[in-house]
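HUMAN: Mind sharing a backbone?

ASSISTANT:
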Amino acid sequence: RCARSVALVAEALRRGWRVTCVASAEARAGQEDALRAMGAETRRMKANRGDELRALVEAARPDCVVFDRFLAEEAYAGRLREIAPSVVRVLDMQDAHALRRARERAAKAAKTRGEDAAKEVLKSAPNARDEDLMREIASVQRSDLTLVCSPVEKEWLTRECGVAERKLRLASFFVDSVDAEAMKRDFSARKDFVTIGTFMHKPNVDSVEWLCEEVWPLVRKQLPNATMRVYGSYATENHRRRFHKPAQGFLFEGFAEDLGETLRAHRVLLAPLRFGAGIKGKILDAWRYGLPACTTPIGSEGCVPDVVEFWSPTSSAPIDPEHGWGGFGDFTNPQDIADAAVRLHEDENLWRLARGNGADLLDRLFSARVNLPDVFDAIERVIDDVDAVRDADYFGQCLWREDVRSTTYFSKWIEAKETGATN
């Protein structure tokens, strides 16, 4: 997510936009400095503070505000509209939160019943009465334009959720190119397995748990000297106690100081995700640094050319090197995943085919030189003709009636409660 957001900021600056990045949370070490070094301004602002928001908007005089996920839109869009009604409001979904949460619930239920959780979650999607989905769709409808990360989710939003396609723009990841140094490291210069992902994200924690307890022992039966290394930010001592098992070749490494060097050293990315949504950055990172990936249909979702439907075990085409994919992406049970991972690790010809496919897919689906101009052209069209966009947005404008603007008034209530303000 961070790399994707940074790419959006960089493209805005390249186009001559003045960019101000605003957050209510404390920045992690180096984040503000990195943004400023790019040429962006940074500001911190307490949530639910109308006067602070007004002062910021009056100082920045934006033409467009991008909300990072629907929670930010809920917190700020109503007050922004009161302060500067002509400012274009763009929602960046990142992933479909309601879909991810519904899949998480389905995975937990399947595990309790002893079923194949990675398969069962693919039958699950939130319905119209789902509270998370109601909030997220309302945020999409209130916005002038919404950036959707995955083509599968974009299709779902239009076909199942009734969102007008004109309100959505595919804004997937933005990759410059494969890493040249990584592509010099061929099969014999690499070894072992790796996975990576922040431990603040529940799908990643669940994936490592499943990998450690069920998938990896099956790999080690076939490759008794193999090593699995797990990297990720925000790891805790509890994570280390649960997942660091040197005797089984399962090494919990924590934060990767140099992502490129870490991935260049390994032969296969093994990421058995049982639930999640959006595009999985770890898959694209693997392809960029010359690794094939072994994952589930959740992990490969949105990364298969010309596929905009949720994966089905009966109707979907194979997701494997022989069918043009950068690894294996359609297995859901531990034995099949382990067998596929071993094949990628041991079969040099298969590995080379998968790695080449991954590099091709990066350029075909996630090229920064193609995707970034497309996204910004769409935003600029809305800025140039925002009144016409809103005049045609009947449903979205209905949501700005006072009797359905609970998020705005809830924000004001929080401010009054915390500050004693009465205005």
Q: What stands out?
A: Residues 63 and 384 are 10 Å apart (CA to CA). The mean pLDDT is 94. The radius of gyration is 22 Å. The chain has 20 helices and twelve strands.
